[in-house]
Amino acid sequence: MTGGFTAAHLFYLVHSIWWTLVLSALAFVLGSIGGFGVMLARISPRRWLSRPAMVYIEAIQGIPLLILLFIVYFGLSVYGFQVPALVAAGLALMVYTSAYLGDIWRGCIDAMPKPQWEAAECLSLTRWQTLRLVIIPQALRLALPPTVGFLVQVIKMTSLASVIGFVELTRAGQIINNSIFQPFLVFGLVGVFYFVLCYPLSRWSQSMEKKLNVGNR
Amino acid sequence: MSAIVKLADVYKSFGSNQVLKGVSLDVAKGEMIAVIGASGSGKSTALRCIDRLETIDRGTIEVCGIRVDDPKVDLHQLRREVGIVFQSYNLFAHLTVEENIMLALRHVKKLGRDEARRVAMGVLDQVGLAQKADAYPEQLSGGQQQRVAIARSLAMSPKVMLFDEVTSALDPQLTGEVLRVMEDLAKDGMTMLLVTHEMAFAKRMADRIIYMHQGKVWEVGSGDMLDAPQTPELRTFLNNGL
Amino acid sequence: MTFSLDFSPLLPYWPVFLKGAWLTLKMTTVAVFFGVILGTLVAFAKRGKNRLLSRLCSIYIEAVRNTPFLVQIFLLYFGLASFGVRMPTFAAAALAMVINIGAYAAEIIRAGLESVPRGQIEAAECLGLSRWRIGWHVMLQPSIEKVYPALTSQFLLMMQASAIASQISAEELTATANTVQSDTFRSLETYIVVALLYLALSLLIKLIAWGVGEVAFKRRRVIRQAAERAGKPVPDQGRIDTVIPGGAA
After folding, report:
1. pLDDT 10s digits, C59-112
2. Are A65 and C75 within 8 A, CB to CB?
3. What is residue C11's three-state secondary structure?
């Protein structure tokens, strides 16, 4: 009942997973660096930093990733940059990720109790020292579950790179389906592969969150 | 005078922990019984079993003629006869004081909105909180919340009311207002069973005091029992001021 | 090579853009409405006593949350077509969205239900309320208020996910953008305009959501106003701030 789905097709799908992972890693790592910067700007007492950061976050969070992807892709090409789809997708995902992670991490920093800041201040620590030595180490515990949860999002988001022609898992599935017309089988398989990538991370995030809640009681 | 609440030889364990080891007690109509004892003595568990918040392993419990230990017991009928007030009040946080009381009146007793409101204001008046009808629980003090909780149970016209350490979570200056309400209820003839640490109140108001120790009824007596305990365990308990 | 942004060729397309925005709004609202109902049912079913049903609900939720929306919509649209079921694209997109949002809403609502203190449920039982009444009055009502911010976020995320429906040629704002840019050859400008429209829609939704919240959740308003009048600090409204790592994508 496989109607034309061969081992070669399967291999092609599995091979494309590699590119899904590459794009995910690129987006997540670069997005984390960007996100850290966005977070710092957002919590800064300097208005000229925190305001633009807030606008940046609100703007990116208010538009679909697909539109952002098109803007980056077409934007780059009209300004004369012929970039491979991987770069365009990576750039768009990085911007998107930096906004969301920046917001998540800002939330974690905000959740740290005021007395922590006050105690550090009374010990003469500078704001940057307080952040580095007191606040961020504690916020890390709180930040881990939603960050891992967002990594799951990133992996799923790479599927949109297929729209601009990047051959990752979803595009590979489309290519195969266009030749053998077995959408249920092909996309079902694609779904299963994504599930295998994402589910362990989801569970890890959930179990971390449970441990966190028990600790907080 | 036949008893409204009858416990006979009740056994209850949680897992491997045997909490009740053969408890028997009777409460007659209009009586106020105070149950005292150290934590872990099983007093709260016994109370909860009466309203079937826990099921028992052995023995019988009868309330107003209803066999509570019967697996097929009609819970709705049972809970119409029994009112219970909890240590943590358990008011519905998203409803006003008045709505808290009206909820069961409208949906269990099937009263119309106006009649339910009338009954609700009546019991609120009884506990001295008529002016707080439109407030939300979080706007009230602990003592006020507990009085609302009492009013909520009282509105259902139960035949017997159970009080599970209702003043233990309150600041000392707030317990007085709650105890006063309970005193008024007793004077009106309500049958009451209280688990409490308020020794002075128990001594003054209770018809009988039951001291529980390690899952058994250890000593029973009137208020004088607290001045002259018969058993060493009760003596230790009273000396520790628990 | 210099390039300057030129929005003028887009001007005559304003009605087209607005229609696209309207379709996106319509699709999202329909999907969220049915999705939340589905999510509520699944949340209760998952907490219920029937183990098999609970298991099925978990499988449904995890399958949806761990696969991309694009793949889900392909599976639904092309998969059903391969079995001879041809749906109009709007319906297929909306259905895929309902299934997607149902899973996320189920988790959000379940978290809300679990946060209802056990004591309140006991008190309600002891007052003689039936299971249905307890479910609605004591559990669901306060839960909806608590998880309202998370549900609003989910609505917004879903609206952005609707852009993906353009990939099966459903009519909504992104599909409109694709058409306009191929007509005018001003691709960058088109997508910038559409991005701004999505932002405008987001703001509109947030405003409406805030308004609905004020009207529906009397308690928050009453307490906040009372605190302001008394000059006391406004108490934290006790929201569930958990960012359920969600969103369709």
Report:
1. 999 999 999 999 999 999 998 888 888 889 999 999 999 999 999 999 999 989
2. no
3. helix
Q: Is residue A39 part of a domain?
A: yes
In a domain, A92, yes or no: yes
Q: Which domain holds residue A103?
A: 22-168
Alpha carbon distance B89, B142 (integer Å): 8
Strand pairing report for B3-14 and B58-63: antiparallel
Rounded to a whole number of angstroms, the distance from the CA of B236 to the nearest CA of chain C is 33
- Chain A residues in contact with C107 by the CB 8 A cut-off are none
Give the distance from residue C201's alpha carbon to the nearest chain A alpha carbon, in angstroms.
Answer: 9
The answer to whether residue A28 scores a pLDDT higher than 60 is yes
Q: Which amino acid type is present at position A50? A: S
> Of B149, B146, B164, which is closest to residue B37 (Cα–Cα)?
B164
Query: Each residue of C126-147: pLDDT tens digit?
Result: 998 988 889 889 998 888 888 8
Partners of A74 on chain C (C-beta within 8 Å) are 181, 187-188, 191
Structure tokens at B9: 């030889």
Strand order in the sheet with B160-164: B82-85, B160-164, B191-195, B32-37, B208-213, B216-221
B18 touches chain C (CB under 8 A): no
pLDDT value, residue C224:
78
- DSSP at B196: -
Cβ separation C128–B108 shorter than 8 A: yes
For the whole model, what pTM was predicted?
0.80
What pLDDT sits at residue A199?
96
Q: Which of C61, C70, C77 to mutate to test the interface with A (most CBs of A within 10 A)?
A: C70
| Among the partner residues C126, C222, C223, nearest to B51 by beta-carbon distance | C126
Task: Render pLDDT for A93-134 as a digit per residue (tens, 0 to 9).
Answer: 999 999 999 999 999 999 888 888 888 878 778 888 888 888
What pLDDT does A214 receive? 65
Helix axes B142-154, B172-187, angle to 10 degrees: 20
Q: How far apart are CA A70 and CA A26, in angstroms?
A: 19
CATH number for domain C22-230, candidates 2.30.30.110, 3.90.1300.10, 3.10.580.10, 1.10.3720.10: 1.10.3720.10
CATH number, domain of A141, equals 1.10.3720.10
In the block, tokens 């699709």 appear at C27
